[in-house]
Structures are given as structure tokens and as C-alpha cells.
Specification:
The protein is 27% helix and 29% strand. It has 173 residues and is α+β, with helices and mostly antiparallel strands. The longest helix is centred in the C-terminal third of the chain and has 17 residues.
Length: 173
């Protein structure tokens, strides 16, 4: 297992659509472990493979509040089957957009079908933070980011600011 480097805005790979996984084998299981290790290392609650530069439809989540009672979840080829009508708003952050938090309204409940790390087909109904997090990470697999919920002007200003930060943090050796 290893912590992977996070891909951040404005890297174009974050806009790519991730490819489905046909079979869960050794490489996929290693990727899942690496994603969990990377997510926990960066204190995240969700991570999509694209965020470490791998265009595969895999996400990992853990929305447990207690550090000692982790509840890791892995979703391979997740697909939202149903969205509830009730909406909820969370202030969402993203490991690929450092120090940025945006209030986003999403359906409170969603039903998702997926394959687990053992290759078994599953379906789960989620609500609250888990539903929001799942929708956020599935957006990543489809090349959509939380900044896409902003107006064009706010989005452009934020990308410009993040680009400057990224450039100023570089060290040339």
C-alpha cells in the first residue's frame, strides 16, 4: 500500500470520464488499498481514482466521525439509480481543490448500484452525508467538480487563484 500524489485543479485529467472496471483482480485490490491510504492520510472522507491520476471507476468513502471506528466503503462502477426529491445542503470540500469549500444542494437520498471489492454486485440506499459524498465522488468519475456549481465568474476567479498558488509552491531543483 502507498499514499498516492493528489491531482489538483487545474489539471485536465480531472475533467476526463473514468472507464469501468471489468473484473476485480489483484491490481484493482491494490488500487483500492492505495485509495484508502491516500484518503485517510489527507483526512478526506471520499476519494475517486481519477484524483490520483487513474481513470478507473472506483471510489472509496468513510464518513464515520470517530477516528477509532472507521467504516470504509468501496464502490466500483457506481451508478446512481434513483435520487430522492428532498434536497439538503452541505458545505463541500475536495482534496483536488485545496482550501475551498462550497455550499452545494443535492438530493438528500440516493440509491446506487455498484460492485464491491470482492466483485459482488450490490445496491445501497444512502442518505445524509453518505448520499452527498457518493454523489460528489461519482461526479468526479464523470469529470465534474464542485466548482462547476459556481457561476462562471466565481469559477474562473477560483481557478486563477488556485493556478497561481500551484505555481508559487513549485520548487525548481
Amino acid at each position: 500500500m502507498s499514499v498516492k500524489e493528489l491531482i489538483t485543479v487545474p489539471d485536465d485529467i480531472l475533467r476526463e470520464i473514468s472507464e469501468p472496471i471489468n473484473k476485480v483482480e489483484v491490481n484493482e485490490k491494490k488500487l483500492i488499498k492505495d485509495l484508502f491510504e491516500t484518503m485517510y492520510y489527507h483526512n478526506g472522507i471520499g476519494l475517486a481514482a481519477v484524483q490520483v491520476g487513474i481513470l478507473k471507476r472506483v471510489i472509496v468513502l468513510d464518513v464515520s466521525k470517530n477516528e477509532n471506528e472507521k467504516k470504509p466503503l468501496c464502490f466500483i462502477n457506481p451508478e446512481i439509480k434513483k435520487l430522492g426529491k428532498e434536497m439538503s445542503t452541505y458545505e463541500e470540500g475536495c482534496l483536488s481543490i485545496p482550501n475551498t469549500f462550497i455550499e452545494i444542494e443535492r438530493p438528500e437520498v440516493c440509491t446506487v448500484s455498484y460492485i464491491d471489492e470482492n466483485g459482488d454486485k450490490k445496491e445501497m440506499e444512502c442518505d445524509g452525508l453518505l448520499s452527498t459524498c457518493l454523489q460528489h465522488e461519482i461526479n468526479h468519475l464523470d469529470g465534474k467538480l464542485i466548482i462547476d456549481y459556481l457561476s462562471k465568474i466565481k469559477k474562473d476567479l477560483l481557478i486563477k487563484k488556485l493556478s497561481k498558488q500551484k505555481t508559487s509552491n513549485r520548487v525548481i531543483v
